[in-house]
Amino acid sequence: MAFKLIGICGGIGSGKSVVSRVLRLTGYEVYDCDVCARLLMESDSGIKCRIRDEISTEVTDGVSVPDRRLLASIVFANEEKRRILNSIVHSEVRRDVALHGEHVRGLMFVEAAVLAESGLADMCDAIWLVEAPLSRRQERVTQRDNCTQDAFSARVKSQKQEEELLKRYRGKTVEIYNDGQHSLLQQITHLLDGLKGGADKGVSSNWI
Question: Taking the model in full, what pTM does it have?
Fold first, then answer.
């Protein structure tokens, strides 16, 4: 790749989107996997046909926009269906990231809730893991989504597998602390300076 791909990940409420917003305002290309995966499912005929054939004809006829609520109810109740959907969408997202990168020179970022599970971590030159105390994360999510403590705990539990998979990439992972005590902008600037200076794996973010 002619560009360096940097992954942005972290648990729910950690602040991945805030880091991405800062980068966009600074002029960097940030690929949002949640948004782009949704657009691909709505527009890509190949994805719609595979969802029809491999998951359910009730979700889409291969032409219409998939019924996302029905799709979610099916895959959350059936682990095999969830695995199939992920294999369909993740492969297309990886391809789309590579296509976006063809028009980028320098640094490109990809924000993903499942950076490791999707296979995107393997494509990344470095990974920025956004961290925050669990209590702070719950406070943010409660205010943002108006969800209950039980709902938040369930979402945290669902991300445990991703946390384990990310451990494989410790060698190219640095942490960004979005805890209200460390300057988020300072950390991002410091890491960008390291990347632009040729540090493929980023630099330590352990400062105040």
Answer: 0.85
